[in-house]
What we know:
- The chain is mostly helical.
- It has twelve helices and no strands.
- It is elongated and about 80 Å long.
Amino acid sequence: MVEFGEKVKRAREAKGMTQQTLANHLYVTRQAVSRWECGSRYPDLLTAKKIALFLEVSLDELLSGDEMQRIAEKRPVIENPGMKKILLILYGFIAFSFLITAADVILRFPFAVNAGNLATLQLLLLGFAALLTQTVIFGYGFIMEMKDVLTPAKTGAVLSVYFLSLCLTNAQHITAGIGYTGWRSIVMEIVVTFPALLGAIAAYRFFCCKKRQRFWHICIDVVSIWGILNIIYTTWSISRYSPEFASMNTTVNMLLKICVYILILYQVYVLRKKRENRKSLVD
């Protein structure tokens, strides 16, 4: 079967047109056209429509239903130029913030070791493991977005690992709790970590797979909204019952987590809309 890139090349050559001429009409670089024709990259569906119109062929001649799906899954989730800049800044800021917080945890290690407090040391180790994981995964997302290759599969990997890292954070909170032992501790751990586990599974299934999309995107939405409400409730509890309001570090950390959930919700919304639009084009 002739691939999209080969079809574009044949249609372009049939009209006696160079790659540069096609690139100028589409307001892209000649290298972009070359990558399309080689099959290493794909244009978005709107650009594919413009290519078909300019080369005077139908979109169906250039793209089969499978190729439309392949284009959508190989393109970055966020393609709006303005939103891509915001996404890049957010990924970078989130990764840097987690890194700073991890450094703060490292500075507290010697005090826990010298005090011989194993419980505190365990909490610090769990927290550090979660923060290190979050730093690495959002740093990876930042690099992929900077290269303009943050596809749905890569986005799903980032978010799945992030939700799994929250299980470590939740385990840290359980360890810090008082009065939970034996089976009660196990039940409490399951209840507290369940939303994060569901989020990890849902993120992988929604971004990386193509079945039961509606169910999985609803799961992600519910987990993310639950996370935001939980953060707001925690902030309210601190402000009400603590003699002093939350420290600057705690406040920034809460705002950071809310930003992460908003970022997740937005990416889910954009990909869902893109897949719906692709389906309507195929139908």
